[in-house]
Sequence to fold (315 residues):
Amino acid sequence: MPEIIIYLVVGLALLYFGAEWLVKGACNIAFILRISQLIVGLTVVAFGTSAPELIVSLKAGIGGHGDISIGNVVGSNIANICFILGLAAMINPLKIDMQILKFDLIVCIAASIAFWVFILDGAVSRAEGVVLFAMLLAYVKLLIRISLKDKAKLGSSGAGAETKVGHSVPKSMFLLVAGLAALVGGAHLFVEGAVKLAKLLNVGEAVIGLTVVAVGTSLPELAASVVAAVKKKDDISVGNIIGSNIFNICCIIGIVAMIGPIEAREVSFMDFAFMLGSALVLFPIMLTGRIITRLEGLFLVVIYVVYVAMLWPKG
Fold:
């Protein structure tokens, strides 16, 4: 048991700090290049904080632990919206940019539906992985177009960005590399610990992937969104979550499946229903005054608590 605790704690620490360094370096470069906060949240921050999920799911998938790989993504997406976004809104009500409603949330829902359809036969094939990854490329291409159109609105706000963030491009690149290295090491330890814990407690790998691994690898999203909420950077806080969910499905599942088909028999209908439902419920919540209130944030957190309470008995 002490060995398992060391694996989990050290692995989690490396995942967390690795993601912090990765996001910090990427954000510094983004500010220097005058990229809007929403685009930064949807891409740099979202993709950076999803790096732990990528490494963990990739290692689990290659190691033949498909339920952890799939469960990690499904559980992370549920935790991202219900727990993390809900908690951020409870700290400070979140204003919603119309782009989220008109474009990004729709992409998130479409990706969730496609993922669910692909896994109905118990596995995601290489061809289906290609489709998911192609969806990500198309999404990023459209974001770049939107970013170029919106760049004029920023005016001269990007001037002196290098001084503002306090890091040069070389220093920021160093943070990126150091962060990735820490993520690789942390992912290895965390997956090892999670698998050992599943065997020790006689709990199904899907449950471990949907809870312990999912929440653990979502800590970077939690840190980024909560800090952004405290600083009233709503676009980064919300964009981080929506972008991460899109990345988790399209990039992570896409890449892992392209390497080799992912089989997952333990991730249930209920798990996918909660994943898709959590994205769908954001529409009416965001449309009410284009803001996620503290009460609505509490509602999302309660949904997550109910989900976990329903989940564990099946383990």
Q: What stands out?
A: The two ends are 19 Å apart (CA to CA). The first strand starts at residue 94 and ends at 95. Residues 169-201 form the longest helix (33 residues).
